[in-house]
Design brief:
Number of helices: 10
Order of helices and strands: HHHHHHHHHH
Bound molecules: zinc ion
Shape: globular
Oligomer: single chain
Structural class: mainly alpha
Largest sheet: none
Helix content: over 70%
Strand content: under 5%
Distance between the termini: 14 Å
Number of domains: 1
């Protein structure tokens, strides 16, 4: 998927508003059916670490971006060297150096290990906090936030890899590195119009819109709404750029 979609999906699934404002008013307005859906959703959510804290929010967004981060570095560096767009994606992208980096940054086992470490750190420190003195409770609280943040980063990155896996034809990644070099070759590409991209692109934009609406309703901050509007507007802008640079679409 496009990087913006990964960010929107991770934010919609993992970042929550404080319970007092969002959940309570939603439950108060709920009809019977809605209450049941709400409870089911809360149950699903209870398996996922969530908090309204800023460190966690940044960690989730960073985790959702991380698998694609090397592509941005590669692209910016290539642009400075004056390499044309088609060469970046047909040659540079497949070079051993960038493929090795993206194998690491798209590895589900690596990010699962990070999420698990964070989750364990969080659980251990919340147990320690109960039986600790004031100063060590503060230290445990910092560790607990770090644990939460690592869990959020790892989960967001796993979500990115899992949603990328079925949408790459010949430009996929070995998502199970270092245990396997297997790369799934999907019949569907999120960008290549020779491989159903014309069918997929409206679906992806619908997913982005849905996540945008969820986040818009969940948070009251004006800055966030501006960021959401930019994120949704970035799709036509990106398509126009790819079209004009002759790469595709
Ligand atoms: Zn990706």
């Amino acid at each position: 998927m496009n990087t913006q979609t990964h960010l929107l999906v991770a934010a919609a699934m993992l970042i929550h508003a404080p319970a007092s404002t969002h959940c309570i008013s939603a439950v108060a307005r709920a009809t019977d059916f809605r209450t049941r859906c709400q409870r089911l959703w809360q149950r699903i959510q209870s398996f996922v670490p969530h908090t309204s804290n800023r460190v966690f929010t940044v960690a989730v967004l960073f985790g959702a971006l991380l698998p694609d981060a090397s592509l941005f570095v590669m692209w910016i560096q290539a642009k400075f060297r004056g390499i044309e767009e088609s060469r970046i994606w047909s040659e540079l992208y497949y070079s051993t150096f960038w493929q090795q980096i993206s194998a690491i940054s798209n590895s589900i086992p690596v990010f699962l290990a990070i999420a698990l470490t964070g989750w364990m750190l969080h659980n251990r420190t919340s147990f320690e906090r109960v039986n600790a003195s004031a100063s060590s409770a503060r230290y445990s609280s910092i560790n607990q936030h770090i644990g939460f943040a690592l869990a959020g980063l790892g989960l967001a990155a796993v979500l990115h890899c899992v949603t990328d896996l079925p949408l790459h034809v010949d430009d996929g990644h070995p998502h199970f590195w270092p245990f396997s070099a297997w790369v799934y070759q999907s019949p569907v590409s999120y960008w290549d119009t020779d491989h159903y991209a014309r069918v997929w692109i409206p679906v992806e934009y619908a997913i982005a819109l849905l996540c945008g609406v969820l986040l818009w309703r969940r948070f009251r901050s004006l800055q966030l709404k501006v960021v959401l509007a930019i994120a949704l507007a970035s799709y036509p802008a990106a398509f126009a750029y790819w079209y004009l640079s002759g790469v595709g679409i």
